[in-house]
Structure formats: structure tokens, C-alpha cells
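task queued by scheduler; priority normal; single chain, no ligands, no partner chains; default sampling; output format set to C-alpha cells
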Amino acid sequence: MSYERHVMFPRLASLALAASLPLLTVANPATRATAAPLVPARAPAGVTAVPAAVAPAPRNVIVMIGDGMGFDQLDAGTLYRDGTSSGQVDVSATGGLLSRVAGVLPSELASSDVQLAMRTTQYGGTYDPSAAWSNFGNVLVNPTDSAAAATAMATGTKTLNGAIGVDVNGATLENLTEYAIATGRKAGVVTSVPFSHATPAGFSAHDTSRDHYKAIARDQLRSKLSVIMGAGHPKYTDDNLRRSATYTYLYKSDYRRLVRGTSGFTYLSSKKRFTALTKGSTPKRVFGLARVATTLQEKRSGSTSEPGTKRNAVPSLATMARGALNVLDRDPDGLFLMVEGGAIDWANHANEKGRLVEEVDDFLHAVSAVNTWVETHSSWDETLLVVTADHESGYLTGVGSNPDWTAITGTAGSVPSMTFHSNGHTRQLVPLFAHGAGASVFTGEVVGDDPVRGAYLDNTSIAAVVERLWS
């Protein structure tokens, strides 16, 4: 078995081993990741990372982010859907030794060329593998938010919580959509939450505060993006019902420009038009605003403890992703697309178990749609897909955890047995999967070795790898 396929299920390891691991930090976290490669804590046995210079340069790059989707959120979703787990932390099952019990990856991710963990800390933050697994509360201290995490992934530079596309001094940073456009490609952002929220904003705008939604929206509209899609409609509720206009996520004047066709984008909002965009000819630039106030589905009425059957009549994240790709692949030079399953995080913050498994399932459907697009309209020889998270939220574990850890358990069709320990974010490592052209370069970005999650890289590596492959 190759290292890339093995690292998600590392060997049994005790806390004593964890304590012996060095703490790796970046001397200057604000330094752009491309400045110098970081040295792994332990070199992967028998594996030599492929330098970017000889790795296949992808024509297309697609980054998919499950906001708040840690290892346990992913497992909760697949336990509900498939009755299988990709592997849980369970002390009780291993005689007191801390380990990751091996399992089965969801089909959408099982063929990934590279499977690693990723560090998510904001500027000045650290991740200590020993402390993370010897002190249950350690990962709750000083976590990143989505703004700092998105900025790090999109620009290769660490910043402070709340900052969008700017460094700790407020200086503008080039993001991956801008880099793609500057190198002749088309670019877009898609999300299941408001289009000017932190994660899509980090990949497409610049502002000192993530809360400046309207200014961020104007920045996005003034950009050279070819696709912007998400929720945040001023005239609809979270239940997809008409309401008096509330302009939270964009200025009224900008909304009018969109509707009147004077914004430079072709505007669409109905489910029918989103669906039509997935095939055939398309406009050159599209702004898609789903008819919901904040989320495609997560904030709708109904039970949040069990998955619901009555869903909003709006496009799915998978439909949005397919439509975006159909617009972007007009360019023979290639594309960059960021797709966010943003409401996973919203369900975590609210500790909503039913909505969590729904949102993970919706995100995996979007991953499946992207896989199908690559295999039908492109190929893995020319496309790189990265699937990851910006951070973990909710501190999800099996029932009975704290001070130790137990596995989440469950069967297909039933909400798993699990517990939230927080309404906020954590510093836990998150999963990263890479597949296709250039994926092997990520193995050279490893900065540490976690006793449970295995080898991990830093979130700045996403921009660093993409820019090196495209340079």
C-alpha cells in the first residue's frame, strides 16, 4: 500500500509516542508558503514527493471545502448514509492506547491519490500533537475562523481571524481566483451559504472584516470572476418564501444592477435556470443567487435532530457546481473553481445532528458531481481536485468522550450516536484529499506527524502547490 493511501489510518500509537514528537511551527507565520518548503517531522517511508517542476501541471484546479467538516463530521455523514466509517478515534477499543480505528472511505473520496491531514491555525497559532491528544480541551483554545482559514488557503499567507484576503497589516494578498485569471484561466466561487460569506470571500475579495458583507459583494462584482453562486437572496426567507426585501449580503443598488442586467453578469435565481445551466451553451459570466436568505437547506423550518424530507425548492450544491463548471470550461486555457459546503459549519454551531448529516451528504453529492464532470468533460490527467475543510467546528465525538475519546457509531439511515462539545471552532486537524494532475506534490508539504491523524500539512500549502504547478 502506498503512503498516500495509508496515512489516513496510521499505526497504533500511544500518548508516550505523541509526547516524543516535535512541535513544528512556522518561524514567521505571515511568510508566504512559497518562500521555502517546510521540513516534515518524519519523512514518509519509501516515498519521494514529486517536485512541481516534473509533476503534471493541471489545466483545471477545483478546491472543495466542507466548512467545519472535521474527520468526525465526515464520518457522521457517511455512517448515516452508508453505515460505514472512515475511521474513528477510540481509546476504549484499543486497551487505552490512542489510535485511529481503520474504516472505509466514502466512495467519492476513496480513489484519492493523496490522503493527508491539514493544520488550520490562524496567524501566530500553533498545533501541538501531544497536547491535542493528552488534554481534551486543548483544541478549543484560539482556533481559526473561516475568514483567516480561507485567506490562508487562497493566498498561501496566514492572517488574523476576521480578515478577508489581507495580511496582518491589512495589505492586499493575491488569491487563487486572481492568480488563475492572471494566468489566462477563468475562475469562480460557489457556496451553499451567502455568496459574500467568509469562505467564498477569502477566495474572491479583500477586506479587513468578514462582516462587511455588502462591501465584499461589491468587491466580488467588480472582480473578473466568471461565476459567483450562493445563497443570500434579499427577497426570500430561509424557507424559500417571498418576503419584504432585506439587504444583508449586498447593497440594494448592486442587487438592482444584477436584476437589470447592468452588472456584467447574467443573473439567475430560479431552480429551473440553475438546472438549465448544467448543460448546453452558457453565458460568459453568471451570478446565481438562490432564493433563500442564508442557506440552501440548513436553516429551513422543521426538525433539526433528524434529517427532513421536505426541502427547499432551490438548486443543490451539486447542481450549482455542475453549472459553474459548464460556464468555466468555455476557456481552453483552464479554470479554477472553489466550491464550499458552508452549512456543515452552521449545523455544527447549532449542534444540529440531523442537519449535519444532511449537509455532509449534500457536500459529498457535490464531490460526486465534480468527479463525474472530470471523467466526462475533462480527465484526471489535466485536472486537480482538492477536497478539504477550513477548520473543525462543534468538537464532535462519540458519546462518553472527555477526558478520553470514543468512536461515533451508527447504522445506515439512523442519526449516529455522537456528541457535540462546543458551539464554536476547534484547532483539530482536518482531512485533505487530492486527486489528479499534480496531486503528488502535496506529499512534499508535510510539516508534522500526528499520533492519530498521521502526516499533516499546513493550510497555506493549497495556494503554494497550485501556484507552483501553474508557475
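post-processing summary
- DSSP finds 14 helices and 17 strands in the chain.
- Residues 1-48 have pLDDT under 50 and may be disordered.
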